[in-house]
Write a structure and sequence with these properties.
The chain is an alpha/beta fold and about 475 residues long. The protein is about 40% helix and about 20% strand. The protein is built from 16 helices and 18 strands. Strand 1 and strand 2 form a beta hairpin.
Length: about 475
Amino acid sequence: MSTEQAAVPAEEQKTENGTSEVKENGSAEEAPAENQAENESPKEMRAVVLTGFGGLKSVKILKKPEPTPGEGEVLIRVKACGLNFQDLMVRQGAIDSPPKCPFILGFECAGEIEQLGEGVEGLAVGDRVIALPEFRAWAELVTVPSKYVFKLPNNISFLDAAAMTMNYTVAYILLFELAGLTKGKTVLVHSIGGGVGQAIVQLAKTVEDVTIIGICSKGKHETLKNANSPIDHLLERGNDYPSEVRKISPEGVDIVLDCLCGEECNKGYNLLKPMGRYILYGSSNVVTGETKSFFSAARSWWQVDKVSPLKLFDENRTISGFNLRHLMYQQGQVKFVQQVIEKIFTFFQEGKIKLLVDSTWALEDVAEAMQKMHDRKNVGKLLLDPSLEPKPKPATPAKGKDKKKQSSEEKKEEAKEKDKDKKVEEEKKEDKKEEEKEDKKEEKKDDKPEEQVTNGEPAKEESK
């Protein structure tokens, strides 16, 4: 053996036939450790996985291998997640270019960086961050390209970050970048009780003398009033709201923010003042049933009037649209989004906006949370917290024969209980009859003449 080989005793040496052999010095201790590492199963995490497009049954909580960051990525330990209407559309397959199932859901999460991939700059292990990945956010761990990861100020909690980042980013761009909100304007907001709707309200009220007309289901009105949401006029969804708007503002409104699409587009456009702006930022009217409806999609499309640019020219009106997902992941405007997020954090730190959170759920209860949003019952943001324990599930009856046996046994028990009750009632009746008989006997004794009584012993005693 050469001196070079002797100098590095822990390394493998090549034999003449090219195979590797391990040196005696230290090799006997290292080989088992390597074999042990190979035999160890990969670590797993919980994740919300969509197994197929459609209903809530396709949303599963599964164990998945913990990811490792690739080049330009960071690994985040997730502390809070945001639930958005876009997630419902993804579940149904109602968005463009969805990934193939199965995949992990979610676009918004906050947590701590645990590991950095190669080439990551400006971030460090232990940083508190908010991330907006394209899918895969709803898990205990997620790898995200560093450009979609933004540092959190120390006084913003993970739950607050998940409650505000996406919703307020959308609201800010709608109001200040697209609508050009200024003093004295009137804004009409659809779905004002939702997460984005409430973000629009809070940000709009940072401008002086702005009037907000909000539309939502009647069931949310009282909750919004109790939450002191600064909405000037609250109208009921489904009613003839355009006529109600005209009563409030006969000339119409300056800005319409529509997340519904369909026939609401035409109604909103016709309510615009000269120089007014209509902005579409969603199409939730497409989501009607539990699964994707081609009829709903087609109806929403055909209900929208096709407006010519010449008509806009003649009427001095503007129509525009906004899609944050496309802006970030397809059009590469991440730096712009980062600047908006920083402004939002500043608003929050200065106390200019007040977050409204509807509820926070465990990962295992995500289907129930999604159903609540689907039914339009949430007021404010819905959040997921991986550290929360799931709600106890109600006991479900056995399936098949066991269920039949169980039901028949329950019927027998009920019959027995009824028989017992009948017997008790009969016994009570018998007791009453006996008591009545005894009472009658006593009455008869009292009614007998005194002569018969004197035939007894007392009469004899008198004779003595």
